[in-house]
Design goal:
Structural class: mainly alpha
Order of helices and strands: HHHHHHHHHH
Strand content: under 5%
Number of helices: 10
Radius of gyration: 18 Å
Largest sheet: none
């Protein structure tokens, strides 16, 4: 709908404060007209979490992501790919908060659900792999990050091809890891 498109535009333009005002209004309307066990309601919750995350207000983002995840479970169950996506959001947020001990098991669960629900050849599976690679990299566990980045790159190559922007992102992620471990020549090849 038009309202959702406007909010999305503000988000893409980096005008998160404007997006937040509109989405807060949208949530109030959703509470009046949608049951909580409705995908649109959960989508709005997740979007609010995303906006707060972009604003760096992680503590405000977390309850929205958690409620969105509960919404997905209520509607689709814990084996659906939407649940994997909601777990990825929570894992990434915990990582941004420096709470790696919470982020890691959630990220691993998201990967497992992704593998079972959409398969290893789906681009969203690559996203779960990349998120875990980044998490391990942020934790300084480079040797654990490498296989996730390599598998994400291989899957992106096989499912999307080398001209897709997601493939370039996977190359950049791997290059960043090699840079972090001091292998600058390998990083240059990938950048």
């Amino acid at each position: 709908d038009t309202f959702k498109n406007l909010v999305s535009l503000y988000e893409h333009m980096g005008q998160y404060e404007k997006a937040l005002i509109l989405f807060t209004e949208s949530m109030e309307n959703a509470k009046k007209y949608l049951p909580e066990a409705h995908p649109d309601y959960g989508d709005r919750l997740s979007s609010l979490g995303s906006i707060y995350t972009h604003l760096g207000q992680y503590e405000k983002a977390l309850p929205y992501y958690i409620e969105a995840s509960e919404n997905v479970v209520e509607i689709f169950g814990k084996t659906h790919r939407y649940y994997s996506s909601s777990l990825n959001n929570i894992s990434i947020l915990y990582s941004k908060m420096g709470q790696y001990e919470k982020a890691l098991p959630i990220g691993l669960e998201a990967l497992e659900i992704s593998k079972k629900s959409i398969g290893k050849s789906h681009p969203n599976y690559d996203l779960s792999l990349s998120n875990l690679g980044l998490l391990y990299e942020e934790m300084g566990q480079y040797e654990k990050a490498l296989p996730y980045y390599l598998e994400a790159l291989e899957n992106a190559y096989n499912s999307l091809g080398t001209s897709h922007p997601e493939y370039a992102i996977r190359l950049s992620n791997l290059g960043g890891l090699y840079k972090s471990i001091g292998n600058h020549n390998r990083a240059l090849e990938l950048y």
